[in-house]
Amino acid sequence: MFPAMELLRSFTNPDLSYLANLCHNCRGCFYACPYAPPHEFALNLPKTFAQVRNESYAEYAWPRVLAGVFASNGVVVSLVTVACLTLIFMISIYFQGPNALYAKHLGSGAFYAVIPFRVMVTVSIVTLGYALLALAMGFLNFWKDIGGTIPELFSLSNWQRTFADVLTLRNLGGGGHGCTDKDETFSNARRRFHHALFYGFLLCAASTTVAAIYDHFLHWIAPYPFVSLPVLLGTMGGVGMMVGCSGLTWLKLVGDQTPADRNLLGADLALTLLLALSAFSGLVLLALRSTEALGILLALHLSFILALFLVLPYSKFVHGIYRSGALLRNSIERRLGSAPSSE
Amino acid sequence: MVDLNSIYDVLVIGGGNAALCAAVTARRKGKSVLLLEHAPRDFRGGNSRHTRNLRVMHSAPTSVLTESYSEDEYFQDLLRVTAGNTDEVLARLTVKESGNALPWMESCGALFQPALSGTLSLSRTNAFFLGGGKALMNAYYHTADCIGVHTLYDTEVQTLHFEGRSVRNVTISVKGFPANVRAKAVVAASGGFQANLEWLKEYWGEAAGNFLIRGTPYARGRVLRDLLRKGVMPVGDPKQCHALAIDARAPKFDGGIVTRLDCIPFSIVVNNLGDRFYDEGEDIWPKRYAIWGLLLARQPQQIGFSIFDSKSLNRFMPSVFPPVQSQTIAGLAAQLGLPPAALEKTVREYNIAVRPGNFDSKKLDSCHTEGLVPPKSNWALPIDVPPFYSYPLRPGITFTYLGVKVNEEARVLLESGTPIDNLFAAGEMMAGNILGCGYLAGLGMAIGTVFGRIAGREAARIADN
After folding, report:
1. In a domain, A340, yes or no
2. Which residue of A has its CA nearest to B138?
3. What does the pLDDT look like over A7-55, one tens digit per residue?
């Protein structure tokens, strides 16, 4: 990020949005800076950039009326989760009667005895579709603001470096020795935990996709046996997410708080906790699905997933969208030769 | 952890680059080491935390240095900046040993920037620390901690007690509480005295009260003065200090590099009477910037004002503070507290004296004044396109030259020339042996690293006997 910054003498708001979202919050600058607090200049770039990032999430939110959700995002994510819990339990009781939640359901179609198939599919398609649309619109708002054009988005060569950066989190590796995750010493902990969460999340998404294909095209109805592609992918993904969420939360809590903004901790923890609950409820559901707990566990799991879908465009999750946009911008500028590499 | 009742093998006084190099070296030889840093942990590292690179001899390109930089060329550079005011034996030792510094530093966790990024002109001779001097110090302290060097912060050494030609014990103040510590060998690496304004006043009078100190406020020279009073041989001119013009709004201490201003060749500089006092375009800036601190020190109230117009605003690196700005020269004078009529007269006379020429900021150009005293010999352009700008300037002191005389073993010598049995010095405290005057980028860190390691090695050897 600093090589990109050195090219400028004064900064406009879009410049700051771009730089703040290009910043991976490695905090190396904070520990290397002789002007960091308690120096009287009290220069705290990681904290300032975290604040600018959060402001940019609000600025580019779609629709714009929902920008306010980033003001106290931890509360919003929590309330949405509570609302989803209430809703799913009410849906279950409304369609299948109060007893379905406590009864034992075995064999093919067991899940749909708790929540009807059509309701489950409709709700998930509508919410996920909306979330993807809102994320895409937010991305476009950001992309246009930082000077990007639409044709640039359709050039595969522009994306190559960006994909590699995103998939490897190269910029959190510090060139091999890692980053100042917890204090001024270097480690690769944050990169590894983020990877666990990121790839865990992707495996879970793959599991759901495979399940949808089984159901729709092959007419194999869930639940699937333990040794089946959706269950294996989901299990690995769930474990990865648990590891990642625990590790990232641990780093947040034991790490040096000075370069962080205390006001944004709630937003970070709320999303991490929701992801962890989604994964954990899925794993417990798998373990206990042949018992009477199935109904309650499935309702819980679906509630968390629904909440996750709803808050995707309105939570810390958007960092990935804007970070990717900033990396894309940076890779284009580097290819044009106007920006040095970000190492 | 720290046990002040035990006898340490090696006691290191100071907490900057040289001190850490000595402490790590001695500890790696299996010695018990106690390091005393005057600053609190947040401000540890002395002036090393403001540094960026070290000057390294090398015969072939490396991952962090381009081309080559021979022992002779390095030594010639040193002779040039010091005008021969150097101890050739110690200087050549520094140059040669600098060639072995990088792998050792890397073994202590130091990271370097790849060659060719950023400051091109220095990438042949100087290796740049990734993240700068503070990141390097973080790496050193982390390494020292891991291998078992004991460290006390907020700890000032007050006096060394001698018995014959040996240091027997040392009186210290730990967070304000008095204590004594004993060690078989002592390494003094606690810097110069530039942060001691009272001491500076002995040479500069009350003017020193208006000096700004660019680095650590903990370089108070207490150990240096204690040693000189006890008959240690001094080296370096006590009156001299490296001083340049920095933004007058900088903090009293620790403003570092961001308060430096390179605007002088593109401006005129007046004192608080509104009068010019020196040729701002005498020579290219890198050759002249180090004289402006002392020029300002001789002006009333030790303050100056660089005045320029909108043509020159983007010709130099700004300081961290925005310039004072006005649509008129009189308006600028009012904001700066200068007599408006005098400043208008100075600017008017200067503008009349400017001769047309081909302006070129990169070299000595033909733009100069005629019939003006003092003249402006290069880069003289009329100050006539509003808005007008000014940076107030004060002397910013980087370091002092006074130190203690040492030999090739980093051993401190008495005035008689006899070495002290168990006292060594490294870093700024003895840099005057090699850099008697002038300045060479990255040399201070090279001296600190080389003599820190020698002092650590020799102190460990003494502790064995």
Report:
1. no
2. A184
3. 777 888 999 999 999 999 999 999 999 999 999 999 999 999 999 999 9
Range of the domain at A323: 2-63+73-149+158-335
For an interface test with A, the pick among B120, B138, B146, B212 (most A C-beta atoms closer than 10 Å) comes out as B138
For an interface test with A, the pick among B106, B153, B254, B313 (most A C-beta atoms closer than 10 Å) comes out as B254
Q: Compute the distance between CA of residue B229 and CA of residue B349 in angstroms, rounded to an integer.
A: 53
Are B251 and A184 an interchain contact pair (Cβ–Cβ within 8 Å)? no
Residue A303 within any structural domain of the chain: yes
pLDDT in tens, A156-210: 888 998 999 999 998 888 777 889 998 999 999 999 999 999 999 999 999 999 9
Cβ-nearest to B251 among A31, A40, A340:
A40
Q: What is the mean pLDDT of residues A141-150?
A: 95
For residue A39, which residues of chain B lie inside 8 Å, CB to CB?
43, 254
| B49: closest CA of chain A, how far (Å) | 6
Q: Exposure pattern of A87-120 as b/e (b: 16+ CB <10 Å)?
A: ebbebbeeebeeebbeeebeeeebbbbbbbeebb
Place of tokens 């009781």: A93
Q: So where are chain B's domains?
A: 7-199+401-464, 244-396
Query: How far is B167 from chain A, CA to nearest CA, in Å?
Result: 35
B70 touches chain A (CB under 8 A): no
CB contact B214 to A (< 8 Å)? no
Residues of A with CB under 8 A from a CB of B: 3, 6, 9, 28-29, 31-35, 38-41, 177, 184-185, 340, 343
Confirm whether A91 is domain-assigned: yes
What class is the B7-199+401-464 domain? Answer: alpha beta
pTM of the model: 0.93
Its ipTM equals 0.91
HEC profile of chain B? CCCCCCEEEEEEECCCHHHHHHHHHHHHCCCCEEEECCCCHHHCCHHHHHCCEEECCECCCCCCCCCCECHHHHHHHHHHHHCCCCCHHHHHHHHHHHCCHHHHHHHCCCCECCCCCCCHHHCCCEEEECCCHHHHHHHHHHHHHHHCCEEECCEEEEEEEEECCEEEEEEEEECCEEEEEEEEEEEECCCCCCCCHHHHHHHHHHHHHHCEECCCCCCCCHHHHHHHHCCECEECCCCCEEEEEEECCCCCECCHHHHECCCHHHCEEECCCCCECCCCCCCCHHHHHHHHHHHHHCCHHHCEEEEEEHHHCCCCCCCCCCCEEECCHHHHHHHHCCCHHHHHHHHHHHHHHECCCCCCCCCCCCCCECCCCCCCCCCCCCCCCCCEEEEEEEEEEEEECCEECECCCCEEEECCCCEEEEEEECHHHCHHHCCCCCCCCCHHHHHHHHHHHHHHHHHHHHHHC
CATH class of residue range B244-396: alpha beta
Q: Enumerate the residues of chain A whose CB falls inside 8 A of the CB of residue B251.
A: 40-41
Question: What is the mean pLDDT of each successive set of 10 residues along chain B, which is 465 residues long?
Answer: 95 98 98 98 97 96 91 96 96 98 97 71 90 97 98 98 96 97 98 97 96 97 98 95 96 95 96 97 88 95 97 91 97 97 97 95 92 96 97 97 98 97 98 95 97 98 90
Domains of chain A: total: 1
The amino acid at B6: S
For residue A258, what pLDDT is reported?
A: 94
A51/chain B closest Cα distance in angstroms: 22
Cβ-based contacts of A184 with chain B (< 8 Å): 138, 142
